Amino acid sequence: MNLDIEQLIEKYYEGETTLEEEQELRAFFLSENVPAHLENEAKQFRYFGQTRKEQPSAGVSYRTVTQLSKRSKVRSLNSWGLRIAASLTLLVVGFGAGIWYTQHEGGLSEENSHVAEMKKTLQAPEQTSASERILAVNQSYELAQGDEEITQILLNTMNFDENVNVRLAACQALQRFENEQIVRDGLIQSLKIQTDPSVQLALIEALVLMKEKRAASEMLRLAQNQKVLEIVRLKAEEGVFHLKQEKQTNNT
Amino acid sequence: MELKAFTQLILPTQGRLFRLAKLFLRNREEAEDTLQEVLMKLWSHRQQLESYQNVEAFAVQMTRNLCLDKLKSKEWQSRAGEANWEEVEEQKVSPYQQVELSDSAALMRKLIDELPETAKLILHLRDVEEYSFEEIEQVTGMNVNHIRVVLSRARKEVRDKFLKIQAYESGH
């Protein structure tokens, strides 16, 4: 018996034993009557035997299983619910973004293209007809507020357009921006430049309406200029009178 | 796969998975956590499980990989420095024997722990879990001859070191 065991032990350490033989060894070493000289060998087998008995605490598997069952319910619901919710969200977001984009993009580009078109038309007077330019000038009414570039373009148009009607239209369009200093200065300047009676009349009227006192001296000059048409001279005189009256009432 | 079928398939192996995790992590709680993680993972792979011929080998592999990942993690390495994970076994033996046994058990565990990872795994699967060589082959992907060599070397190494320390201690 002992001899067998010792042979088996030998085989065991060579890694040659079968599972059955190893079981035999284990049984032998776990029994009470292990010879003293094999006691040390027994330690190894006892250790393995002991280790084999270790189990996770009962709570672990219970916890795991309950967690799994909860999870499986929530999960299957989740995965489908989530998938549907996700696809719906995507759709809604996509549509929303599309609508928003077209609206804003469209709105912006519309306004921008108006302005751009207007600028283009007014800055190339030799390529466009007078009526086109008047239309362009009138487009400035669609703008909520003028920017410097547009008022400058309108001023240029008023001063230098070859067509009287375009100049008149520009003059009227500029009156919308009467609060801007650049517009007021421009109108006074224009009084010196303009030679056409109707534009001169429009300017005088506009300046009087604006109560622009700085224009008085220029109007006085017009009133005294014999080259100017009589009706313009009278209008200028009237304008000077109005502005001076304004001054006096302000002073008293 | 239904939960019931899953638990019937997996729960019998949970003791083995736990012991394997404990072999690597040397801590009961960590091993239990790992076991739970493995079960969760297996559950999330349950569709594939049916196609595996040997679910246990798959689970064992998964456990081993998870443990090795944990051991490699920085968190683990910083923690391992602080704490002593050894724990005292509960035993139903006489106090004197108990001291001696737990001493030698602790020593044995330390010696096994010092083995290279593969040797440790093979020794554990064979001598604790009583795996056949074919089963070890499935888990490790090594061939039988190689497994035998590693196993023999591991068994001898543990014995030799143990005897050495015993002789050293009894000499005093």
TrEMBL record, chain A:
* Record's keyword terms, sorted: Membrane, Transmembrane, Transmembrane helix
Ranges that cross the membrane: 80-101
Q: Tell me where on the tree of life, at the top rank, the source sits.
A: Bacteria
Q: Is Zinc set as a keyword in this record?
A: no
Give any Pfam family that matches: HEAT_2
Could you identify this protein by its name?
Answer: HEAT repeat domain-containing protein
Query: Is Transcription among this UniProt entry's keywords?
Result: no
Origin organism is Runella defluvii
Q: Which Gene3D superfamilies match?
A: Leucine-rich Repeat Variant
UniProtKB/TrEMBL annotation, chain B:
Domain RNA polymerase sigma factor 70 region 4 type, first and last residues per copy: 108-157
The keyword Transcription regulation is assigned to this record: yes
InterPro entries reported in the protein's UniProt record: RNA_pol_sigma-70-like, RNA_pol_sigma-70_dom, RNA_pol_sigma70_r2, RNA_pol_sigma70_r4_t2, RNA_pol_sigma_r2, RNA_pol_sigma_r3/r4-like, WH-like_DNA-bd_sf
UniProt KW rRNA processing keyword: no
MF annotations from Gene Ontology: DNA binding; sigma factor activity
Keywords in UniProt for this one? DNA-binding, Sigma factor, Transcription, Transcription regulation
Domain (RNA polymerase sigma-70 region): give its ranges. Answer: 13-76
Biological process, per Gene Ontology: DNA-templated transcription initiation
Q: Would you identify the family this protein belongs to, as annotated?
A: Belongs to the sigma-70 factor family. ECF subfamily.
Which PANTHER family does the UniProt entry name for this protein?
RNA POLYMERASE ECF-TYPE SIGMA FACTO (PTHR43133), RNA POLYMERASE SIGMA FACTOR HI_1459-RELATED (PTHR43133:SF8)
Report the NCBIfam families cross-referenced here. sigma70-ECF (TIGR02937)
Name of this chain's protein:
RNA polymerase sigma-70 factor (ECF subfamily)
Task: Please name the source species.
Answer: Runella defluvii
Traced from the root, the source organism's taxonomic lineage reads: Bacteria, Pseudomonadati, Bacteroidota, Cytophagia, Cytophagales
